[in-house]
Specification:
Layout lengths: L1 H22 L5 H9 L5 H16 L2 E4 L1 E6 L25 H13 L4 E6 L7 H15 L2 E5 L5 H10 L3 E3 L7 H7 L5 H14 L2 E8 L6 H13 L4 E6 L16 H15 L8 H6 L3 H6 L5 E2 L6 H4 L14 H14 L3 E3 L12
Parallel strand pairs: 1-8, 1-9, 2-3, 3-4, 4-5, 5-6, 6-7
Helix pairs in contact: 1-3, 2-9, 3-10, 4-5, 5-6, 6-8, 9-10
The chain binds S-adenosyl-L-homocysteine and iron/sulfur cluster.
Amino acid sequence: MENVMSLFKFSTHIDDLIAQAKTENALSRKDIIELLKMPGEHSLDLFAAADAVRKEQVGDEIFLRGIIEFSNYCERNCLYCGLRRGNRKLSRYRMTEDEIIAAARQIKDLHIPTIVLQSGEDSFYSAEIICKIIERIRVETGLIITLSIGERSLADYQSFQKAGAHRYLLKHETTSVDIYKYLRPGCKFENRIQCLNTLKILGFETGTGTMVGLPGQTPEILADDLLLMKELDADMLGIGPFIAHPDTPLAGLENDAFELTLRVLALARLITRNTNIPATTAMGTIHPLGRIQALRAGANVVMPDFTPEIYKNRYDIYPGRADAGGAAEIMANLQKDYASIGRSISYSTGYRKIKLHS
Ligand code: SAH
Ligand code: SF4
């Protein structure tokens, strides 16, 4: 009898925590850890609370960001990533300026208002080249430009902004300094955070985020990840499951973080309220309904991949990436999926809070 009573009390306690998270913004580190560790039967309540806060704070529309992965060269050697410089099996490519502009036009033609330019850390693209690309996209398409090209100097970030880039994605990946050092040889966690602070100060809409399911990661570390997202006041949060790549030192690790990733995503919505949170391609890769489930657990953004077909397969960060096929096919699939959950696509710019251009 006593056991039943304590189980009942625990269950009510979890219900109370979820209710608290839904109505106010005051989960402690201990509360977050409890919600990350709670038994599976409470998950749906957590997702429903995050879904309700998503609806109240950012509405039912799904913002699209068209992504172009313009180079798979990388000077870093992150243990988790297929683009790491040590992966000799990968056939490398760099898109020319004209190819990038052509892909941007395709995004513009589909009425998607924002573009994300992503690559490995590839110094072939000097600040000058990146600025030229930014200026051409701005003048020739008017798209809102997001960069995701890694750690650069203050002077580079300043020049990107002057050239007309509005947003920057740089996931902090993990708040555990030990795991960071192990997974990103030669890189410093403090430098990543400094870059994020610089971007924020310069006025970029700034995105950070984490991978879930990394070796050595604990609920305590994930709670710190969530608190850091809040502390940085990041505008966008990329939260995706780690997926082991066969040609990396982490080959063969289990890809079993789907449910935990949904929990982290739901908590990110509950803690940060009005941020833009993508249903990541990695979610769609690890589970056939992954992106839809993410959209029902707090996410409000999707980033369809418009990298030209000849290059797409070679942007092999992790294996089996979703979003194969051409632009029309991708858009038709997205529209069908969203209608099935009562959501629609927004063609506005999707800024956080202040909607400057919509
Ligand atoms: N080079 C840039 C941008 C490209 S990598 C950078 O590192 O910031 C983009 C994202 O891919 C990274 O932030 C990382 O979180 C994610 N990623 C890399 N390898 C992954 C893997 N094996 N599984 C899931 N996500 C991965
Ligand atoms: Fe390079 Fe980014 Fe991959 Fe690290 S995660 S190897 S920096 S592309």
